[in-house]
Amino acid sequence: MYIVYIIGTILILGLITTCIYLYRRNVQVEEKYVTQLELAQKEAAVSIAACEEEYKQKKQADLTEKEEHYKNIIRDLREKHTAQLIKSTKYIKSLEAFSKNKGEIVIHKTLTTLQTNLIHKNKITADDMIIMGNVFMPYYMNEQLFIRQIDHVVLMKTGIYLIEVKNWSGDILYGIRKDQIHELSFLVDSLSTRVARTEEQTFVFTKTSEGEIKVMSKPHPGKEVQQHAASLKSYLQKLRRDIPVVTPIVYFNGDYNTSVKNYSQNHSLCFSTKDDLSVFFTEQLKQQPIYTTEDLKMFKETLEKASYHFIHS
């Protein structure tokens, strides 16, 4: 009996010990699980926080990149606008510096206003009417190099137009000849050197404040503008040989009392009002085009290079 008691006691103690061991092991496993769970939760929280921070940084970086991109666009546009403004200002100043009179500035503004109006009416694009003022063109005479200063050149698909500006006021007899005024031909002889009966002259009649009439003999601008047109045609024919004509135009930029009577037979046009000049170019748009946009750009670049070399030489 005693042995059985001892064995039973040992078994009970072993069972109790096993239960205690299993309980402690279970507690340790549970504590480990809780610890791992807490660790996992902490790691997840850290990971979520890191993802949120990374997202915020990426979003901020994207916003910064886009902001920088648009800032660059705005800066480029501003620089381009400023450059165009400076270019326009320099262009006007160069006109004022080299012009013989302010009439050339007035004509430039008239032509650019006309161009703007035609663009707004969808009759032309900006490349269909190129306006160039104060053009310097080289030419040779007797194997010597000379420079012609042309007040304005207008390049259009319908033709090339050269404008000579005269700041004259009064009643102007343009291109008159002795054989046109017959018995009054002595006026030509008295006002200028003796000329042939078929040679064209230009006279300006003005009235003084005392009511006196003054008559002035002027160098005939028709001859000058014809020479300029011929030289310009010859110069541009180096680029394109089939240039039919350069149309010469004389513009008298006088006051509102200025009137012009055109007696000329040398095919040079003359105008004395901005409206007449605008109507002329508007009507030219109805003509058949003879040049392309690429032709006009080529002419423009060539004349700009010639003027640039002269101004900076």
Automatic annotation (TrEMBL):
Residue ranges of the NERD domain?
109-214
Protein's name in the database: NERD domain-containing protein
